[in-house]
């Protein structure tokens, strides 16, 4: 047998079937559609190449590498300057209060001891890697079978590595071992670097303050509480060897690990060192084969990003023999495992999402300037904005027409103001509050940018309990809405539009000092369409167009819900 390269041998991308690849894509990013280039091509090899490239993009995105290394691009060019990153200050110090064997038990309060928790690599890993629903269901401990469970298993391995280097072992754990029968993955821990999440701008900072006011009861404008501060993301650097079967002449990398043990046990004899090495090799943690193979692919892919100068320096620093270099690679892993919806769209459509930037007057490119009121139209210059105003004026604040002239609105349409009036902290499992808020739409009181121009796009409308009574917190009683069924939530694939609609929503908006008109006739028609055409009478995909400070929902041309695969 031999040392395996996970890019070429049994653990490789090339070993995956098309079904495997598509299953992994769905598991990684909740991706339900297929790139049209795959279905259009009759060449099986070309189809696989496109699918594998999508899988690589998904792995890249799930590591959030564009956030952590903003100057890099999705490519296989080694451009991550690891040497520029500061090391995690106390990762080598043992923390006996964190128990090994699982996710660990912390004898600290997550809010009061937030500063203390920052010294634990394990804490940021678990906060950033696992979603809240996964933690509640206990999935990190018992991943289910299938691609989704395999991906949770990959995250579990990363979490366990962070436990080993942060918990009771500390400096006494220079390497970790995972195995399944004759599949073996050994990782030598080189360093733990930390990267600051991008600092929030003024508007984003205001969102965070609003969120902490809602979550922790903090005073408006108060400094961010510790749990809301910009997190330090751990990046664990490893030298790893992935084996399928034992090498005939033994592993040179394993002999190298003896030298690492000698650093910890300087007074041990050669025989005692071998006994200690065998004991540690035998006490490795067993993991399902698919978990190990997918993690090896992730390590192999990430290894391609590391700048060669740093790798060469590491190899010379440890006086790594040529035989060991042949058996190992230097890589890293990051716990920021969250899908971004624009990356999902790119994987599904094969096209990079480009926000609408065409001048509403002259059609020239206009990347930054937009109508300051509705943010629905771009302009290349103030002159074009002024010239276009007579034409744009009627649409700019169409929400006013909902109040003053509702009968003048076109029939079979629903108009919903897009001005945000509640802090959107959507439950997509983002444990990092900063990212959760960032995913949640515009600042309260502002309209989101129009990313589609005058083109139609699909929105998902979810109206639970359609046609039944619903608890109204403002009236403190159950209310049956004869005209509808309470609140519906609309959002597009990119989550650039996220709006609420319901009879009680204007009252909630008014509490924030924001006037949100309610299109009563359109709402009644919409609830009828949902009950008649919607999936389970609750879920409906609709065509939407941005008109001024509203979105216009077409209630006549309803897409075929049976063929809708976007989620």
From TrEMBL:
PROSITE patterns: ZF_MYND_1, ZF_MYND_2. It comes from the Eukaryota. Transmembrane segments: none annotated. Residues 359-396 form the MYND-type domain. Keywords: Metal-binding, Zinc, Zinc-finger. InterPro entries: Znf_MYND. GO terms for molecular function: zinc ion binding. SUPFAM superfamilies: HIT/MYND zinc finger-like (SSF144232). This is MYND-type domain-containing protein.
């Amino acid at each position: 047998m031999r040392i395996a390269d996970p890019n070429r041998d049994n653990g490789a991308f090339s070993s995956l079937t098309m079904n495997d690849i598509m299953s992994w894509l769905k598991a990684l990013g909740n991706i339900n559609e297929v790139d049209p280039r795959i279905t259009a091509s009759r060449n099986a090899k070309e189809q696989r190449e496109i699918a594998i490239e999508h899988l690589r993009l998904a792995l890249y995105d799930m590591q959030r590498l564009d956030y952590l290394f903003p100057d890099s691009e999705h490519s296989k060019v080694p451009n991550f300057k690891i040497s520029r990153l500061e090391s995690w200050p106390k990762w080598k110090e043992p923390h006996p209060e964190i128990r090994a064997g699982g996710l660990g038990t912390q004898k600290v309060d997550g809010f009061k001891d937030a500063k203390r928790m920052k010294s634990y690599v394990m804490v940021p890993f678990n906060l950033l890697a696992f979603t809240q629903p996964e933690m509640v269901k206990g999935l990190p401990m018992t991943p289910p079978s299938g691609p989704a469970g395999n991906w949770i298993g990959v995250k579990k391995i990363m979490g366990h590595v962070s436990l080993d280097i942060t918990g009771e072992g500390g400096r006494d754990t220079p390497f970790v071992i995972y195995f399944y029968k004759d599949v073996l993955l050994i990782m030598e821990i080189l360093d733990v670097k930390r990267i600051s999440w991008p600092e929030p701008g003024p508007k984003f900072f205001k969102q965070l303050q609003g969120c902490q006011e809602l979550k922790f009861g903090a005073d408006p404008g108060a400094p961010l509480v510790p749990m809301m501060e910009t997190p330090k993301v751990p990046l664990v650097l490893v030298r790893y060897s992935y084996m399928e079967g034992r090498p005939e002449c033994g592993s040179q990398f394993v002999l190298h690990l003896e030298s690492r043990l000698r650093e910890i046990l300087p007074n041990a004899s050669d025989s005692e060192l071998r006994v200690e090495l065998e004991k540690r090799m035998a006490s490795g943690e067993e993991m399902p084969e698919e978990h190990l193979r997918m993690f090896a692919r992730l390590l192999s892919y990430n290894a391609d990003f590391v700048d060669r100068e740093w790798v060469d320096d590491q190899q010379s620093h440890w006086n790594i023999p040529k035989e060991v270099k042949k058996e190992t690679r230097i890589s890293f892993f990051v716990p920021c495992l969250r899908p971004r919806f624009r990356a999902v769209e790119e994987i599904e459509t094969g096209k990079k999402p480009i926000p609408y930037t065409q001048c509403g007057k002259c059609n020239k490119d206009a990347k930054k300037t937009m109508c300051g009121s509705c943010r629905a139209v771009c302009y290349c210059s103030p002159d074009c904005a002024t010239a276009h105003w007579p034409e744009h004026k009627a649409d700019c604040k169409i929400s006013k027409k909902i109040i003053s002239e509702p009968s003048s609105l076109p029939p079979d349409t629903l108009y919903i103001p897009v001005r945000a009036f509640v802090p959107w902290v959507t439950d997509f499992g983002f444990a990092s509050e900063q990212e959760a808020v960032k995913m949640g739409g515009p600042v309260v009181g502002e309209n989101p940018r129009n990313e589609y121009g005058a083109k139609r796009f699909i929105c998902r409308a979810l109206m639970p309990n359609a046609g039944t009574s619903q608890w109204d917190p403002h009236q403190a009683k159950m209310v049956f809405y004869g005209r509808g069924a309470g609140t519906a939530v609309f959002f597009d694939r990119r989550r650039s539009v996220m709006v609420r609609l319901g009879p009680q929503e204007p009252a909630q908006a008014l509490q924030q000092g924001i006037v949100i008109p309610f299109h009563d006739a359109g709402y009644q028609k919409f609830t009828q369409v949902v009950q008649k055409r919607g999936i389970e009478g609750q879920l409906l995909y609709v065509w939407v167009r941005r008109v001024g400070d509203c979105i216009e929902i077409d209630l006549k041309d309803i897409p075929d819900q049976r063929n809708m695969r976007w989620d």
